[in-house]
Input
Amino acid sequence: MARGRKLYEGKAKILFAGSEPGTIIQYFKDDATAFNNEKKGTITGKGVLNNRISEHLMQLLMEVGIPTHFIKRINMREQLVREVEIIPIEIIVRNVAAGSMAKRLGIPEGTLLPRSIVEYCYKSDELGDPLVAEEHITAFGWASPQDIDDITAMSLRVNDFLSGLFTGIGIKLVDFKLEFGRVYDEHGEMRIVLADEISPDNCRLWDSVTAEKMDKDRFRRDLGSVEEAYQEVARRLGILPEAELKEVDAPAPE
Ligand code: TMP
Output
């Protein structure tokens, strides 16, 4: 598939124009960053695995009625998605205390939360994605109250679905981050769809029995065996054989 011009390079992905109008090609890199770019590294094969894992999860979510930007996977490192207008809010859903919330509220990591908690962060690398309230989102016009209701309801449905899916393969879905975007139909009607990616880069996944971390915290916290953890998630999802056709080094995306 012909790739158009480079539109944007993020920390883990590069976006290119797709050949059809209104489409984008997401190229998944092996680059990893943490703590707002302070820590940088490479996780060999991560791009291939995240491309495949995100494809798999987005497809399953679409099957249960969650609209997403996903169109199709093109090759090992690229997928075709709909062009969306990204809503500048990161939605974090938490089932178990961990990471920034555990630290902020002094709750021991691993504590089961009384119910799932949804948090909103303003998407800004400069500011380090600060936690914001609905009040900020509506007052500054990042999203309307209706948009927030829709996004929150979809995020909780994603949580219910993915929690069940991961439980079935011996993994606890501790928390995750989602991004949403706006698409417009031919009549100018706006619809919100799930965008970005869902992968061990933006989920916390713990082995149900041992509580071993199987996500990007292995990189953030220097726990080692990062590649193996991502591979194990793909293996348990039943999608490793294809991803395993190891295309180890990331070719230049030119
Ligand atoms: P946190 O506990 O560090 O706030 O992270 C919550 C969840 O969000 C965790 O699953 C990792 C994910 N996340 C991202 O996807 N991108 C980010 O920049 C951060 C800080 C977290």
